[in-house]
Specification:
mainly alpha
Length: about 160
């Protein structure tokens, strides 16, 4: 069972990345363009206002990059930092716990993107089109492991 799950890991990470990026980009699109109900229930964020417009731009751009798997680690790092900033400046002053201060989405996005910084994009990432494919022997000699091809353990 564990071996099957290990083989599915890159695909599960990719699905997590795609869904998280799509949800994050949707927040940015709603705030910038008024789609999907708009910013905070209607309308758009005024262009250039701090921090709302910049946060929405980060959400749209970083969310789109994460969704595609293009520069995933860097985009996820920026997105995680923006959500940490949002949590501590907007939500945390109202109360300590996210459930009390309405910061659940900020906290979850922050930790989700931080996880992607460390796991990478998984399968189906655009980044994989630009990286050179290495043979299993070359990646073994360099100490690197191809996460799309989990190592098998035989007894």
């Amino acid at each position: 069972m564990t071996t099957r799950l290990d083989h599915a890991r890159p695909y599960a990470v990719a699905l997590f990345r795609i869904v998280t990026g799509l949800l994050f980009a949707s927040h940015g699109a709603a705030s910038l363009f008024g789609v999907l109900g708009g910013a905070h229930g209607g309308g758009t964020v005024v262009a250039g206002t701090w921090p709302g417009w910049y946060a929405a731009a980060i959400q749209l751009i970083a969310g789109g990059l994460v969704l595609l798997g293009l520069g995933t680690r860097a985009a996820a790092f920026v997105a995680s930092g923006s959500m940490a900033y949002a949590y501590f400046t907007v939500h945390q002053p109202d109360a300590l716990w996210p459930l009390q201060n309405g910061g659940e989405a900020s906290a979850m996005f922050c930790w989700s993107f931080l996880l992607l910084v460390f796991t990478g994009p998984g399968a189906f990432a655009v980044d994989r089109l630009f990286t050179s494919r290495t043979s299993p022997s070359a990646s073994a000699s360099s100490g690197r492991r191809d996460e799309t091809r989990p190592e098998t353990v035989t007894a």
